[in-house]
Here is the input.
Amino acid sequence: MNALFTFIVIVQVLSALIIIGLVLLQHGKGADMGAAFGSGASGSLFGASGSSNFLSRSTGVAAAIFFGATLALAFIGNRHDAVSGGVMENLPAVPASNSSTPASPAPAQAAPTTPAANEAPKAAGTPPAAGASRNAADQANQIPK
Here is the structure.
């Protein structure tokens, strides 16, 4: 299904680029004024009728392909698979162990040392140093790893 989606996106992008190129090649309504002053279209590649019929039909075909690819992408993108639950329900089942011994605990990590932890305790009436309170606040906001 993913390959089909990628193919349709490629078709849509190519048809959009073709439409842009064909629209830029076409003459506007005011381009017919130049034919009155000697730039005749009778000797052009597309004949006396000019390139308007060929380019306009080519643009119409490219637009139809673009709209068809857009509808196909909308149809494919709107299809939902019947999923009963979330991501966690799709995990493989882990067999429960029947042993009565608990799992070995993880080794305890040493507490990080900070300069505030290494300072000697101060007297009860003295305010803490600015650096010590900042380090304590930073340590309180840290997320354990």
